[in-house]
Write a structure and sequence with these properties.
mainly alpha; Globin-like; two-stranded antiparallel sheet; 63% helix; globular
């Protein structure tokens, strides 16, 4: 990392400096590695492949790289509203989010140092819970019954 880039990288995450090893290349590897697993997965593959046409995968992967870059590196590159697209998927439930988190954890554990894997997982668990609450609310379900899927339960 250049001296200039290093000087501007003083972000704190959960009270600690953002690890220098976390960069765009790592985010790219995580996103692409994760979605490689998703597309082949017996539960999630049909869901994702059913809503993302084969020729739209490159754009989706680029958007997900932008999302994680904005989420972890605070780049502000992501533009969009992911929740409405998830609300439109019929039948998506806890088992889907649990599998999503399991595959995500496998990916970040394989590709990232433990501290960075923990950053990714912290955000992924929060996102999953937020989406589950929104989906339940949208369906008129009791959101008080929605419990977070904790990483140690995967």
């Amino acid at each position: 990392m250049s001296d200039q880039a290093q000087a501007t990288r003083t972000m704190l995450v959960n009270g600690a400096l953002l690890p220098e090893e976390l960069d765009e290349a790592m985010i790219h590897d995580v996103v692409h590695g994760f979605y490689d697993l998703i597309r082949k997965d017996a539960l999630l593959g049909p869901v994702f492949n059913g809503v993302i046409a084969p020729d739209h995968w490159p754009a989706h992967l680029a958007k997900m790289c932008d999302f994680w870059s904005s989420t972890l590196l605070r780049t502000g590159r992501f533009e969009g509203r992911p929740l409405p697209k998830h609300l439109a998927i019929p039948g998506i439930g806890e088992e889907h989010f649990r599998r999503w988190l399991t595959l995500f954890r496998a990916t970040v554990t394989r590709l990232c140092p433990p501290d960075i894997a923990a950053l990714f997982m912290d955000r992924a668990v929060r996102i999953a819970h937020s989406f589950r609450l929104a989906i339940a609310f949208n369906r008129g379900e009791n959101t008080l019954e929605i419990r977070p899927i904790l990483e140690d339960s995967l």
